[in-house]
Structures are given as C-alpha cells and as structure tokens.
Amino acid sequence: MLDIKTFGPQGGNVLYKALSHPLAVDAMKQLEQTLNGRSLAVYDPEGYLPTVRGLYPAIRPSVILTHDSEQVGQPDGLGGQKQAVVHLAETEAEAVLALSFDHDRMRSRLEGFLGGKPLHTLGEARLPDDFLPYRRSYLDRCNFATNFAFFRETEQFSTRLVTANYWSNYGAAELRYWLRLFDGTGHVLAEWFQEVEDADAGVVIDSRTVKEQFGLPDFVGQLFIHVIGAKGHDVVKYALDSFGRNGDPSLSVTHDANAWPSMRFATLPAPDADETVRLWVQNSHGTAIPSGAITLNPMGEEDHRAVEQVIGPYETVAVDVGALFPDLKWPAQLELRSGRHLVRPRYEVVQRGRTRIAHMNVERADLLPDPAIRTMSPLLGRGFVLPFPVLDPAVHTSFVQPTPMSESLKSLPMRLDLFDEAGQSCGSHFLGDLPRNHQGAVALHELMDQPGHAELVYDFRNGGEGDGWPHALMRYRHVGTDHAAETSFGGHIFNTMMTWRNEPQSYAGPPPGLTTRLFLKLGQQLDGVTLRSFCHLIYPTSLRDGRQPSRTCLHLHAANGTELAQETISIQPSGSWLLKPHELFDAELLQRAGEGGYVLIRDLTCRLFGYHGLENGVGSFSLDHMFGF
Fold this sequence. Notes:
Blueprint lengths: L11 H9 L1 H14 L4 E4 L5 H7 L7 E4 L16 E2 L10 E4 L4 H8 L8 E3 L24 E8 L3 E8 L10 E8 L5 E9 L5 E5 H8 L4 E10 L10 E6 L6 E5 L8 E6 L5 E8 L12 E4 L6 E2 L9 E5 H4 L8 E5 L8 E6 L2 E6 L1 E3 L20 E7 L5 E8 L7 E10 L4 E11 L6 E2 L8 E7 L12 E8 L5 E7 L1 E2 L22 E6 L2 E3 L2 E10 L13 E6 L5 E7 L6 E4 L1 H4 L2 H7 L4 E6 L5 E7 L8 E2 L4
Parallel strand pairs: 1-2, 1-4, 2-3, 4-5
Antiparallel strand pairs: 6-11, 7-10, 7-12, 8-9, 8-11, 12-13, 14-19, 14-22, 15-18, 15-20, 16-17, 16-19, 20-21, 23-28, 23-31, 24-27, 24-29, 25-26, 25-28, 29-30, 32-38, 33-34, 34-37, 34-39, 35-36, 35-38, 39-40
C-alpha cells in the first residue's frame, strides 16, 4: 500500500499531484540517486513526509527535524525522536532535505544551521515556469489540472479523447495541453504540447493522429494530460471513445479518470459464461507496484487473490479476471484493493467477437452509514435518486445491478421507480435490503414495455442502511446485433429547492444545484462509416411538487468554439428525451461544426442528467454517463 494522502480539504490532493507529476518524478528520481547511501536529515515544515516517502521510498531519513518546540523529542514515526532544527549542524547527517518547493526560502531559513551540509529541497522537482500560470503559490490547484487516460492504437483498436475548452467559462484566456504518452512497459513514447487558442473550442486527441505524427509503433498504454492555464477548478474531464478497426465491430465509450488513487474500487463485473473480462491495471506512479500489492475479491467476501507480477512505473498490464476466479460468473461482482497505486481502472469485456470498455468507480473510505438518511425531511421527497435509461424493450435488453460504493456499507435497501418518456409512473419494484455480497441484476426490459428511464432510491421498509453514495452498474444489449454497452454511476438529490448538506450538488457553486451544463460531442466518420452521437437526457426529481417542464437550450458549437445554432426542447419532470443532434440540426450546420464540434446542453431551470454515446445506424452503439462543467 502507498502511504500517501491523495485527497482532502487541506489540499492533500494538490501535493500528491505535484509530487506524482511525471516531470516531478523525473527530478525526484535524480534526487533519490543523489541522496543514495548518505545519512539524511529531513526538515518537514508542512507535513509532506508521508506522501514523499510513499511515492519515493528510496528517500530514507536518518533524522527528522522540527521547528515546533513542543514536537522536539516526540516520536518521528520512523523509530526515533524528532530533533530541533537549530541543532541540525550537530547531527551526523551528511545531507539535508527540506520538504518545501520554495528553495530560496528554505536556504534563507536554514543557512545559519547547516554547518556546511549540502541542502536539497523539493524545489529541485518544481515544474518549469511555463507550466505555472499561478506563481504566487506553487501548490495552487489550478497549476495541477492533470489526469490520465487509457490510450491505445493497434491494428484492432483506436481511441479518441474528446472534450472542450470549458475553462474559458471561468475566465481562462490562454490554454494548452501538455501530453506524455507511455507505452505498455511504462516507457515514454512521445510528449508534446497541443494549443487550444479559442474559447469554447472542441479538443480532440486521436490515437491514429498521434501514431502518425510521431511515427510510433502500435501501443496500449496511458496518456498523461496536463492542462496549463486552467481556471476555476483542476478537474480534467473528457469522453474516451474506443473503436474496433479492420472489421472488428467493437464500439464503446468511457470517460475521465478520477485524478487521485483510492484504496478500493468497485463495479467490476465477473465474466458471463462466454465472456472474458480483462482488468487494465495501469500504474499511475514512478514507483513499481510490488508483487501481490493489488488484489481482487468477490464483493462482500474476504477471498483475496493477488496480481502476482511486479508492475513497473507507468506500466500497463491486462489481468484476466476469470483466470483468478474461474468459478465466479455474472451477475457476481468484484472489488479491487488497489493500495492507492491506480487512478480509476478500466476493464474490458470480450464476448462473441465484440469488445466493450468501461470503468470502475472509487469506493469511498470516508463515508459511514448515516441514520439521518432514513429520517430525511419530506421537503426532500425521495432523497437520493440514481437515474438511468431504459432503452426501447423492443430493440434492447436493459439490466441494472446495485453496487456498494463505500467500504463500510453492509447492505443496500433499494427500490426501483420506473417512468416513461413523458414522466408518467410505470410502477415501482422493491428490491429488498440487498446484502453487500448480493449477486443479482434486474431485467428492466421485463418491467417496462416502452422506453423511458428508471431510478434507484433508498427504501428502508425492511431496515438496512444508507451512506449517501448509492451506485449501480447498467448493462444494455441490442437484441438484433448482440452489441452491448455498460456504464455505472451514483445517485444524488435532484431538483429540490431545499438542501441537505452538499446536495443537490452544483458544478459551479454551493447547493442547491438547479441548472444544467452538459457536453455532448458530435459524431464522426470512421473507416467510411458514419457514427452519430446521441444522449438519453433525463429530468430526475427527488420531489415533484412545484417542478415545471424544463426549458432546455441546445447550443451547437463548431470545433473552433463558434456557436452555430440553438434549439430548445422541453422535458417533463421525471421524464426523458432521446436527443439526436442530426435530427434537430440542419446537416449543413453539422458539417460546419466538424468532428471537434459539440452540443452544449444548457438549462437554467433544473438539473438534468444524461447518458451519451455513438451509433452506426445498424445496431452498434456506445453508452456512458455524460459530464458537465
């Protein structure tokens, strides 16, 4: 396990991102070599040492120094006692490492106490100045708008990352992407800048283009993304399409990774009888993952089976889930104990000549079952709601599987509420107080005879507990072509004026979140086939009282960010809309928008939620939940 602080209100995530940035890793590895074999005194004025040692275990302090008089003589966590920094010259240390990115300040502070010992600081691992739009504080979170993406280009598969310059909405004027591509062994294949000159412009990074631009061999690896000039927040969001090539009919989509590692991840399905489930383990750090440090177990069971091989820095390894658990079959689900070595892992399901890719979700360690959820005010209606599409039962099958998404949750008291596209109720189905290790999935196409959507909500009639983080895995299949897709998401309180803690969530401020800003990419041409985008747009409501039909504006943007057209639609509360840009906008406008164009879904009256994808018109489709900003 990596003993690192990766996320927290005190900015631990920014420190983690600064220390784990690939450019910082390069410099820290040099520092490790410089200090190797030398007795080392470490001065840690900001409490950085656990994260530094977690990421760089070759840094082995002999002495821990403190300027806090009350800490002198206290255990240092390494088997010794903290010593006063003013006695630095008297220690036997051969070198000093001050854990601060401000080298000049540390030099000025410590110079009179060094006694001739060489001073090193984290300033040696600072990013170049042209990566730092915010100079006053190095650990400004917007200096580290970073993320990873699964990235692949082979004869069989291509990938395509699509997003937009949403940072311009927060006032960002100059923006560029710094990208570093790692191959499957963790070696750097390429690095480059991609300029984004226009406000609201579309951003596309295509594996085919990258391979051609740099003359690369085939690769299956990961792309590190640093958005320089971000403003407003540090979350790098994108959609990632995966395409089958040279006759492979596969088509799927997933989305951005969480930018910090977690101890556990969930929503990994066990393979069906004729499936291979491949878990892509991608080391997110410059330190190797030891053999056995990553394990899988059936959800709710203490049967842990390890990934035995050592996984090198930034290496990508495919793990055959069925080989680890040959007797475990869908609808069983698994949990990944990742030891904080990974950001959001991807998995791939291979079945009958088609491959679909999806992601696991962070399993929260900080959430406990909360009795207050059982006694929420009636002003919040049904409280937490998890909405998802029910595709046309005449054409598709639709399954849902509730999944635990916090470490301490023992049961899931759940009910399904069903709605048609007009928002009319199609019934409810109590699922029971499901145990953590339940192995069930509900066939929604057997409960509805028309398209619409379903919502998972808490139902405590038989007891149980809620943690405010309800999740589910949704799986869809075209009955004619056998093409399948899957996605997973969590629930929120939707569209109530009254609030409960941080719900209903808002992207742009404090709750209640009652507006919508969603990104829907347009389609493209692939090997002579037209792929068109769509989204299932849902108007979920925890409380229907007082809700009016939506006034949803669809803004068509060209690849350069120029707005070309607007259309307005209206969705009933608890209703949904299958939105297809090619049916709303003129073909000439869509052609002008181009393959970097997109639709911004905007609503100032309510918060909508959606699931997007591409379709080829003959049964192949992708599906994943949308992102907003």
